[in-house]
Amino acid sequence: MVFFWFRRDLRLQDNVALFHALIENAEVVPVFIFDDQILSELPKDDARIGFIYDTLKELDQQLKSLGSSLLIKKGSPSDVWAKLFEEYAFSALYYNIDYEPYATQRDAQIQKFLESKQVLVQAFKDQVIFDTNQVVKDDGLPYTVFTPYKNKWLKKLKPDKDLKQYDVDQKHGSFYQFYAAFPTLNSLGFTLSTIKVKPYNLEYLNVYDQIRDAPFDDKTTYLSPHLRFGLLSSRSMVKKALASNATFLIELIWREFFMQILYHFPKVVTQNFKQKYDAVPWRNNEQEFERWCTGNTGYPMVDAGMRQLNTTGYMHNRVRMITAGFLCKHLLIDWRWGEAYFAKKLLDYDLSANNGNWQWAAGTGCDAAPYFRVFNPTAQQQKFDKDARYIRRWVSEFDTLDYALPMVDHKIARERAINTYKTALQS
């Protein structure tokens, strides 16, 4: 008997570690662990937990149709695996690699324990096309600028090899035949949220480059939560991108770029990638931060984006850039405040991408926007929502006297930001 551990790969098909577990063993027990360390930081009605729960329930139904089940556990993963070994004395554990700092530390601890019990631990690359050290500079150091990373990534890609599909259909009989009752969401300590993850939509992928900056049209793929939790494989998405849209492919490469930055430079979780930006004296006005959070800045594009986020858990990518830049540059509020708020609200929250994009907006990250680039939210509105259709969807009082006046003047805020950054960097 061996175990397969579902993590960021909530699917049976095209799942590398699951494929290997099934073809190499006769009895595979699939398990998912609700990690208390992660859950303790979330509200009881967190929409992402509801999405994961529903996805796991579908997986369990698929497994039950094959005479097997999904074993659901909750607690500290280290404690769970110790108890599972006592109960089952399994011979191997298979899982796909997670590159986040907490995950790598957790997995190393569990591997050390299991190997002390003579359990074989098998970890596989699945959520990325290229692993942490597969796309590096000629001297072996990691890239910190996107364009050369992208160029090396594209040069290295061999679709027949790197985008191979891992079909497990013929090996479904290798699942351990058992029945496990599926827990209720309430028994796990959570309740259903009114916010729901939308189905993904690839209908407009061929024109992705033409429509991706139009927030009102709502022709986004809504793919990111599904990719984040592994309902689809990265290989299948890159394959679609190669066949349909080069710009969409570049977005997928950005995803891997930020993952390898986080892996090689874990300090970015709490620190500026560029240490010299530690000297920037953030204003961190709590009342101004609250107005930004609630979408009451008096800048319609910013307010629409924040209200969309608070209501739905989504925010259009172009608008994310505008809202983040406004917080860091116009209000001079530490990017970590905004990053933490997005982490609580975004249905597609991914530490590496969220951190990378916030540091890009603040100018503190690798390959970041220069500090003197300060987006004008009004100009952005004229460019991407000139008829204010997106704004009116989310800011109901936009056309009335009740709408807030701008909390800062753009010209004054821009000059303040540039002078603050410049002075800090010269000190």
TrEMBL record:
Q: Which UniProt keywords apply?
A: Chromophore, FAD, Flavoprotein
One of the GO biological process terms: nucleobase-containing compound metabolic process
Sites marked Electron transfer via tryptophanyl radical: 282, 335, 358
| Named cofactor requirement(s) | FAD; (6R)-5,10-methylene-5,6,7,8-tetrahydrofolate
Instruction: Give the InterPro entries listed for this entry.
Output: Crypto/Photolyase_FAD-like_sf (IPR036134), Crypto/Photolyase_N_sf (IPR036155), Cryptochr/Photolyase_FAD-bd (IPR005101), Cryptochrome/DNA_photolyase_1 (IPR002081), DNA_photolyase_1_CS_C (IPR018394), DNA_photolyase_N (IPR006050), Rossmann-like_a/b/a_fold (IPR014729)
Give start and end of each Photolyase/cryptochrome alpha/beta domain: 1-129
Cofactor binding comment, as recorded: Binds 1 FAD per subunit.
Q: Which residues bind FAD?
A: 208, 220-224, 248, 251-258, 348-350
Gene3D superfamilies given for it? 1.25.40.80, DNA Cyclobutane Dipyrimidine Photolyase, subunit A, domain 3, HUPs
MF terms from GO for this chain are: deoxyribodipyrimidine photo-lyase activity; DNA binding; FAD binding
A Pfam family annotated for this UniProt entry: DNA_photolyase
Do you know which PROSITE patterns this protein is assigned to?
A: DNA_PHOTOLYASES_1_1 (PS00394), PHR_CRY_ALPHA_BETA (PS51645)
Q: What family does this chain come from, according to its entry?
A: Belongs to the DNA photolyase family.
Please state what the protein is called.
Deoxyribodipyrimidine photo-lyase
> What organism is recorded for this protein?
Polaribacter pacificus
Record lineage: Bacteria, Pseudomonadati, Bacteroidota, Flavobacteriia, Flavobacteriales
